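Re: weekly structure request thread

Next one in the queue (404 aa):
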Amino acid sequence: MRNRAIWSAFETSPGGVRAIVDWKEVLGLHFDSVKPYLKPTQGLATSVPCRAKPQCGCDHAVVEHKRDDLVSVCRCEPKRCDTAQIDRTDTVVAELNLTAVGGAIAEALGAKSDDHGIDGLLFTRQVGTYSPQVGVNIPLILTVQSCPADLQTVAERLLAKDDRPFVLLSPTERHWKPECDRLLRGRKAAFIPLSDAVTWNGSLSAKQSIADMVPDTLAAVLPPTKDRCVLRKDGATWTIVFQDLTKTVRHSIGMEYIARLIRNPGQNIIVSLLRAVVKQQDETIILGSAGTILDQKALNDYKERIDEIEEELETASGDRKATLLQDRETLLVEIGRATGLGGRMRHQSDDLDRARKSVSAAIYRALTKINAVHPSFHQHLDRALDLGFVLSYRPSEPLVWAAE
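Done, posted below.
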């Protein structure tokens, strides 16, 4: 079954409500991957699809003789199928759990999960909030409708409720009308059919970043790109906005390193610290006799950075304060590894040099990918990044970055 067929199955009954036996029929081998997103109701189905091959032409009635004695009865006249036993569990009516599937969709799209119902709209929930920039919040609204008229009603009522842009998500575009597109464009809202945007392979993953899917909406809520620079992780991709050009590249550890350096312009960051704060792996220094873990200059850089952190902590709050505290703790651990009693320098093998080579190689690989899609940003980084045992980002002119 193709990805589209899974999404289409949700639209074939109002709100994605049907008996388990019916879900098994429409989903086939993919029933098990969808089952965690189905929520049993209190009722039992009064009819089930005919299981004959070919089907007789009617939905069979469910007759309960006693609790664990249920049969399906052909309603054709005259009857064309034999009466057959049916498991009670197969007659349980289950609905698509919009909260669960909505949370998975929000995560796949790189948005914050934000689930709540919307008054007056059946089978419709806000499932997430997309924040392309601090202070900018775009609601992601999921609706599952089984006919064009109902989907149009949802779009019209959402537009009437609020004048802010939003993104409307629906399993497919099957019930979407051109007039709905015109309505949303007037508000700079957007429509995304999930069959085109999200792949369902046991887990959910986005085919591209949400920034690439709703460019008109972003243009309406964000200042002109020439006045801002953005490096933001959106699920499996990074969004780059630089010099009036927006592009995306696939996620890599090298992009994590670059983002971390951009968040700390003009600051020296020791290579082992950079590896630690992005949590690529636990850093273990092996003591030996070939050279020192840190030379005196690097050790002084550590201590200078701790002084800077202490000063900034006096006014920092929220996420920035948490980041600073983490950096300070990591620096103190690294200094402890580097020095013995009385502050004497310890020795090590070639581990630090391997860390330098590993981080530099990851950054160079990321730069190669950036150059393929955004040459001007690559040129900027090529001039602004200093790599080695001590790394830094030092742009020739100050830039305001949203690096998330």
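The radius of gyration is 28 Å. The first strand starts at residue 17 and ends at 19.
Next request, please.
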